[in-house]
Amino acid sequence: MSSSGLHAVWLSNRAILLAGGVDERDPATVGDTVLDAATMAYDTNGTGGVVVGHLPPGAGGGGEPAVVTMGRLSAHATELELGDSALQALIRNELSGLDAAQRARVLEFILTSVAGDLRSPGAITLAGRLARVRDGLREQLPRAVATDDDPYAVDIEAIYALDQESFWIRGWIHDADHTVASLVAVSPEGARADLLSDAYRHERLDIQERYAAFVDAADERHGFLTLLSLAAPSHLANGWIVELRTSSGAVLEVEAPAVERRVERVRAHLLHDMAAERPGSDALVAGHVHPALQRIQARLEAAVKIETVIEIGDRIPQAPEVTVIVPLYKRIDFVEHQLAHFARDPELAAADILYVLDSPEIADNLLDSAHALSVLHGVSLRIAVMTHNTGYSGANNAGVSVARGGRIVLLNSDVIPDRPGWLGKMSAFYDATPGIGALGPKLLYEDDSLQHAGMYFYRDNGGLVWANHHYFKGMHRSFAAANVARAVPAVTAACMMIDRDLYDQAGGLSHAYVQGGYEDSDLCLRLIEMGRENWYMPGAELYHLEAQSFTAERRKPAAAYNVWLHTRTWNDRIESVTREYGRHPLAGKDSALAEPSR
Amino acid sequence: MQKTKVLYVLHNHPALFPGGAEAYALELYETLRDSTEFEPLLVARIGSNVSSSRASHPGAPFSAVGDDPNQYFLYTQTDDFDFFTMTSRDKNLYTQYIAEFIRAHKPDIVHFQHTLFIGYDLVSAVRRMLPDAPIFYTLHEFIPICHRDGQMFRTNGELCTHASPRRCNECFPAIPPQDFFLRERFIKLHLDNVDMFLAPSRFLLERYVDWGIPRERIRFEDYGRIRGNHSVASVPPPDGARNRIGFFGQLNYFKGVDVLLQAMAQLGDREVDAHLWLHGANLELQPQYFRDDFGVLLDKITDGPNNVTLAGKYVHDDLPRLMEEVDWVVVPSRWWENSPLVIQEAFQHQRPVICSDIGGMAEKVTDGVDGLHFRAGDPRSLARVLERATTTPALWESLRAGIPDVYDMQSHVASLRTLYREQLEGRLPRSRELAT
Fold first, then answer.
1. Residue A587: which pLDDT band, with cuts at 50, 70 and 90?
2. Which of B90, B124, B178 is opposite residue A446, by nearest beta carbon?
3. How far apart (Å, rounded) are the C-alpha atoms in residues B21 and A69?
4. ipTM of this model?
5. Does the distance separating the beta carbons of A372 and B94 come in below 8 Å?
6. Does an H or E element contain A19, and which?
7. What whole-number distance in Å separates Cα of residue B399 and Cα of residue B369?
8. Concatenated DSSP letters for B132-157?
9. If we measure between CA atoms, which residue out of A470, A482, A492, A491 comes closest to residue A550?
10. Residue A17 forms beta bridges with which residues?
11. What's the number of CA atoms in the CB half-sphere (13 Å) around residue B4?
12. pLDDT in tens, A88-103
């Protein structure tokens, strides 16, 4: 085919699409500006082709009405906002005559040419244009109307965005004839990616039931979960399509539901999908869920940012030795209780009390009540408000970044001191213990049984993973063995003291874990790798009002992921630490600094 | 000499809603008003749950009570009050509004009669603003200890001996034990600022000592009664029988009024000639189950022995006349009680009291001396005691002769004076800074 005219349409405020009788040797210009152009000829014989031209950086006029010239040809491009009908005209006049394979090549060429723009400002407008280009060029397959008698069928149940280019897709495929040759996902912008080759396949009892009439249905792993990576970013929620082709030449396509992008939901669904893991295996989590989750975690970590730090009260210490960091997420009712307790402890008055609000939507609430509580109790404090929810480690690390003390106490909001004096005792112990890493005090439940006297690791879940375990949990606070200061494998971050420099050297709390869990032992293990020892001291006593039941906590999908990740990261170190310390604390390293609890 | 200014804080003003402890507090205030030594100041909380009058002045919760320059209403939003930790969610109440009042009046002594609807935080706020002023707190029931309206009567129907997060969670399964822990901690942190607690019964005093109040910071001091207010009703019954029984108080489950009705039904079955006058109100405020049970019992009695008269609501001034018409006053409470004012009323009117054998009732009424005990919550035991009381010749006269003098307001004020002076003179000034 050959063409003698020229059509021009702005795709974005930088990129313009030309089609017609172009010759790639001719420069393309908008006004006086020479475009940075890429050209694709329709075929080797003809003179036609498409050009994607970019304005050079700094050039003006992008997206505005313009005359575009290429060689002898010229065309008028309407302004970007009005370009839809011009785009349709371009496709109709210049591209609709091409065969399906040619159109597919053109589509791929255009998308490749503007892939970089999909990461820049204006990307969403561009994506909308690309969707129209895709719909104009892509060969539409018959839409599947599935009946239970068909030998093949496919359904996409959910698409979750992990970042701009990667997606988690859940669906099922029925292939009783074993003829399905390919399953290709097409993004609204036209990017194509194979769905099945890297997918995790699992049994779906509901689909087996549906196709029970087929002989092999019970053996088939209908379900698939896959981490899909695209060559170009995708921004649009609607318009995903999946194309199925069989070896016998049958084709069909199905529409996918709208993309879910809300991070909390995406993460919850990913964790939920971990239930499809086959017993005794970690293929799903290791090969699929983990890389998918880490894309989300990396995104969240990159976005950790403090909006503002507000000082409340007129007695903010000028040169505090210790910063007490309390992350707050959703619940702020504990703050009143903590401040009422802090108010009668002179050591806390000298400390930098820093709340980190990880639920910025309730900032007004918190600031209002914190101000009145500060006056009521005569305590001064600072509140760091995050720009958005960033998770437990993000909030703590952000808190440390603005800490004024050279020493840090990470404190949960549901930790209430038994009596004044705990901070000074911990600091004195820390000072007196050479080579110390993290220091944890005695934590109690509301009924005076032990919540924390140091942590060790034990094999859980059929021995596949190393879980954290608290020494003597549930014993009375006076239990003799828990009243000895000693080095331990790890201590909880519900109340953990550490020098700020050391915290920074160790890299702070890891952002790899989901929703709070195992960050503390992960840090403690890093400290051990750095040659430090973590210590438990019974002389400081606080209550940790952990309300969630242990079994409910363990059943949470996030906990299952965290314990897997923790094991994968630290298995060898945990084995050596466990050999060194033994499970029984008295078999471990007793301290010369041992002190009675009360 | 300048008078010592004593600020009384209470949760309700009797002018708006009747109540025993409130009435006592107002009488105490009025008595002290005549003193040459003390200048009392009274702040009584009002709010939407007791009065339809809103805060009358925008931006100011205080308003004057009539033409008395030393009496104030304090309006607080009932919705702002957290009935679990007994605190106002709006902390500006303490740090702004009440603070301004305290700074304006600078009392020498602050005596809390009740902080319901106001919050224990006020005790801490007062301590910070007036580091040297002695703080007194009169305990009327077990609200600091017990979330069940301070009754220490468990939701399973058992008397409670002590609170713990786990036991309280058993009573209120929807509230986690951790919250009860925080509740106790929170209230104690505030009450720590009280210099002297007053307990109107020894029983209540011991409960609070068990709970953690140091013994040296709590004294037994009963409510004082104004003598002149009451005539002693002593009209003898026409036939000489002592079989007229009176109940005075709230018609609710904790007061055991249903136990009394069951006992009356049993007396009817045994054809004992006795009659009960039920003087009380607020049945309509009780839970449906109680109103249903009460109605069924009352219908059964009306259809049978017909030995109960539901006499309805009464006001305090009616008491002398109403007491004239009965020989015995029954106090059948299921819960412990503290120092029931109805016992003082009965004794003031020379009526022996038949009461449950527990707590403040057993303390104030001596079995066989000025009244009779029955097994708390047991209608058969009460029926037996009522039968004995109404049929034993000369028992009434002998118990009546055993009734002690009531503790009068003048003696009470003299005791308070001593306590106030002790605190003012004996204590070391606190070193805390004044709030800014």
1. very low
2. B178
3. 96
4. 0.87
5. yes
6. strand A15-20
7. 5
8. TS-EEEE--SSTTT-TTTT--B-TTS
9. A470
10. A9, A52
11. 20
12. 889 988 888 888 999 9
